[in-house]
Design goal:
CATH architecture: Sandwich
Radius of gyration: 16 Å
CATH superfamily: Immunoglobulins
Number of helices: 1
Number of domains: 1
Keywords: Signal
Distance between the termini: 58 Å
Structural class: mainly beta
Largest sheet: 5 strands, antiparallel
CATH class: Mainly Beta
Number of strands: 8
Strand content: over 45%
Length: about 120
């Protein structure tokens, strides 16, 4: 019995330690801005632990735009969400995409996207 409880605790700790992973990003010029379609994988377990946002950063790490994710995606993995009308400063050749989860915060790893 003690062994089973220990296995469950260790499994839960491993799930909480895994940051959200960006699997794919599509970026395209759309109207007066850019549209980003971002696919994320994360072991969401419910409202206490889920991927809750992703954002577009310039190459210096400044936030350009953010997409808040309104609910857990426990049964939908990986999942894709979009953000349109993102205004990218003129002459910008690359941006970064970064994902966040509760309670872990922003994943320090980003995905670089070429805009040209």
């Amino acid at each position: 019995m003690k062994y089973a409880i220990l296995v469950l605790i260790l499994s839960a700790m491993t799930a909480f330690a895994e940051p959200p992973r960006i699997d794919n990003v599509k970026a395209r010029k759309s109207g007066d801005g850019w549209r980003f379609d971002v696919t994320i994988s994360h072991p969401d377990t419910g409202w206490d632990h889920y991927a809750d946002a992703w954002r577009v950063l310039d190459m210096q790490g400044n936030q350009i735009a953010i997409r808040i994710l309104a609910h857990p995606h426990v049964q939908e993995q990986p999942f894709t969400r979009s953000l349109s009308g993102v205004r990218i400063p003129e002459g910008t050749a690359q941006v970064q995409i970064q994902a966040r989860d509760l309670p872990g915060g922003w994943n320090p790893q980003t995905v670089i996207v070429n805009l040209r």
